[in-house]
Specification:
Blueprint (H helix, E strand, L loop, with lengths): L1 E5 L15 E4 L7 E4 L15 E4 L9 H4 L5 E3 L6 H17 L1 H9 L8 H8 L12 E5 L3 H12 L3 E5 L5 H6 L5 E2 L3 H7 L2 E4 L13 H5 L5 E5 L8 H9 L3 E6 L12 E3 L8 H21 L19 E8 L4 H11 L6 E7 L2 E8 L5 H8 L4 E7 L1
Parallel strand pairs: 1-2, 1-3, 3-4, 4-5, 6-7, 6-9, 7-8, 9-10, 10-11, 11-12
Antiparallel strand pairs: 13-15, 13-16, 14-15
Helix pairs in contact: 2-5, 11-12
Length: about 375
Amino acid sequence: MYNILKLNEISPVADKAFPANYSTAKDCQNPAGIMLRSFNMHGYALPESVLAVARAGAGTNNIPIDKYTPKGIVVFNTPGANANAVKELTLCGLFLASRHVAEGIEWTAGLKGKGAEVAKLVETGKNNFVGPELLGKKLGIVGLGAIGAQVANAAVDLGMTVYGYDPFISIDAAWSVSNSVVKETDLNNLCKECDYISLHIPLNDKTKNLIDGEAIAKMKPGAAILNFSRGELVSSKDVLKALAADKLGRYVTDFPADELIGAKGVICIPHLGASTPEAEDNCAYMAAKQLVDYIENGNITNSVNFPNCSLARTGKCRITVMHLNIKSMLVQMTDAISGAKINIPNMLSKSQGEYSYAMFELDDDANAEVIGKLNAIKDILRIRVIR
């Protein structure tokens, strides 16, 4: 029996992905895996039994990956599972940024009690909320992952000219982007060209405050910024300064902050990007499937700290090894296994940054001798025997 600890409420759809020999609970002993959404794991006392942590969503800033990786703990996320939900809200934000609908609705609510005067007041007051159409305008997409690609394609269908910037775009993502999207290799040029700029990139040390005063200075007067990725990608201080000076026209964000709420030109949405029942179901199911495949087979899919690595089960036993990405490690491991007179009919090894992951299919069961030989190799983080 494998125990899975849920640190947040997770869609019950996840339970359909777990075999009968799995138990999921909010409190359990010796969990093999953990599922969560927004729970803050920084400072959390992680049970030693945990093999993997699965985030039912894309962002993993609430997980101390730098501490878990040296312990050989895989951290999964679910890219693409909530892509349609975020895409739809981004499109909503695009219309809100252009047509002044939110301000108009707020103003109209103040007409309550005016009786027969309402129609006349509406006709005279609506001129304060005039906004341009999207047709023919330029939209810059920063990040063409699962969400950015869908936003780009939808904007093309709306008749916009779409520029895409993503120096790290994957082959799969590139195939999914409309050939009408203009490839942009210079973020500064994208800022100069576009009427609207939409962010769809992860938050890290390199992307924090990516949109700051310097970037905003390059934008068209009255340009709009859409942020449905992470709040810290944009410098709130610089955005507010630009809005006050009418350099920016709108800032639409799914990440409210005290200084942004009620500010001129800012539309704050209460982090609704993935808040649809469909997205929650998709994320939960994907996270659960990834946990099961790793626990039972050692296969890694959508990890943020170890390379994707999957191998068909063909042998009698499987050994997986997490280790530092150092020369001759693979030779040492194969020598250790073959030195114990065990044949390796199939194997796979992949690296990601300073860490590597190796999988060995064995014709015979792994005995104490081979495990001892592997444990004697320096710079190995974790060894698992999967039967």
